[in-house]
Amino acid sequence: MKSKQMLRFRLLNIFKRTSFPPILSNEVKLLKAAITDAKQRGLDPQYTPEVQNIVRRMITLMPFVEKFRELEQVVRAYCFLRETQPFDDPEVEAVGQRIDLVNNELLTDRRYRRFYKSLQCLEIYELPFSRENTSQ
């Protein structure tokens, strides 16, 4: 009896670690289909536009969306400064430190960690920033 309870407990823990929130159920179905389609075409799913668009939609439905957008803005500012300023410029270093700070704040959010872990189970390791800014 006790071993059966332990097995059930372990299965529940595995399910907890790899599941998305219920609000994302439709997007998860679409994501799994897009990943399967990309793999059948011999592509890396995380870099296909279909998968990236679905992940972007999923992010907008999550409570950490504002912090993720803040990270996006800081990274874009850093990239711009790297093109226009020397690497050791204090402004570049300050923005680099801001990236670390915002990223650490995001990583402390349990919902973000769970979301990212669930994506990793689907072999999605890079989260795309918003589409309207990708041309920079």
N to C succession of SSEs: HHHHHH
Number of helices: 6
Report the radius of gyration as a whole number of Å: 18 Å
Which regions have little confidence, pLDDT < 50, spanning 5+ residues? Answer: none
Mean pLDDT: 85
Shape assignment: globular
Give the biggest beta sheet: none
Structure classification = mainly alpha
| Percent in strands | under 5%
Question: What's the end-to-end separation, in Å?
Answer: 60 Å
Describe the protein's architecture and organization.
The protein has 136 residues and is mainly α. It is built from six helices and no strands. The protein has helices at 2-18, 25-40, 49-60, 65-84, 90-107, 110-121. Helix 2 packs antiparallel against helix 3 (49-60) and helix 4 packs antiparallel against helix 5. The mean pLDDT is 85.
